[in-house]
Design a protein that fits this description.
The chain is of the alpha/beta class. It is about 35% helix and about 15% strand. It is built from 13 helices and 19 strands. The strands form 5 sheets. It has a 5-stranded antiparallel β-sheet, with no helix packed on it. Strand 6 and strand 7 form a beta hairpin. It is globular and about 60 Å long. The chain starts with a strand and ends with a helix.
Length: about 425
Amino acid sequence: MTVVDGPDAGTICNADGEKLTIGTADGNDLVLHDETVSRYHAELVRGRTGVKVVDCRSTNGTRAGEVVLGQGEVAPGTTLTLGRTRVLVTDGDKLTLEVHPSDALAGMRGRSPVMRRLMAQITRAAQSDVSVLVVGESGTGKELVARGLHDLGPRAQKPFVAVDCGAMSPALVASELFGHERGAFTGADAQHIGAFERAHGGTLFLDEIGELPTALQANLLGTLERRRFRRLGGRTEIAIDVRVVSATNRDLRAEVNAGSFRLDLYYRLAVVTLALPALRDHLDDIEILVEHFLRAAGHAGPVSELISDATMSTLREHHWPGNVRELRNLLEATLAMGEPPPLERSPPTAATGDPFAALLPLDYKAARHQLLSEFEARYCAALLERAKGNVSRAAREAQMDRSHLLELLQRHRLK
């Protein structure tokens, strides 16, 4: 990639893997010095026929000619515009990337190149002690990867403690992470040892880290930097030795751009980032996953007893909005009932009569997040149109705080 116009004109950047990130924040592969470029502006990934461009909900967007890209594939030789900077996309020689020697690792299965590369990355990352951020859609197996990092590393004999940051109120998350003393708050009738203490010497897995309230992000950052903390209501500092693995189905780079996630905390958590592919992106692994889940559920006979060739073909055509978790649940239902439940060939829409049908295979949090995100985007777009672009008038009409409306507009790239 070559910067052809802007403050960094003439800069050449070559990716050392199959993706390249662009932005003004340190840690990007191509760091720009253009104030109209967001901290995490865009990511480029080698695609099957070109280069996939993903805009990280940047402030000023990413354009290819007159087309504003949210996500799309462009051909090598395309010039992208990011703020006042223009970059030429090139596609150099494909790198020979390390792959895992087998199709199984720590409960994961996959013969496809993308999965075997992921397994190789997990094996390598497990030997270090740096913080790892696991990203991917709901149902792709983020906790399985976190456990693999723990079980394959030097802390394997120490505790593995998981905290779901999105399943509790902010007060409960703080107590679960740091613990509390008796009388620290109403209802605290006994001392509670938090997850950091319970994970001492081992691994702390922070699931749904993108849901962590802003007020707690500073507390978490301070604990990671000082490696010590106080229980809620306590005065004594407690030293801890933990490896932190986090996971999210959100794009934290976009959250950093929107101001809802701290940049310095992101640096601390994403020393290494592992991206899990959606099942629709490695459908070649359907057969091995089907056998794996059936065996795990107790089926000892031939796979063909339950899954015919025609059914297997249908599984390969399915969109899998719930990813590997949806496949596992379907196979468990198949084993229980003796035949597979019916599958939709494509995700249903409002035109088919049920706008919620595509959400039903997802777990509750993923379905709620997807539905809320779509509602926010459509509601705010219509609200802004009615107010003729006047944010203050839109906030009054919606009876909501102007700053909150601005945050929503930025999150959905409407402002």
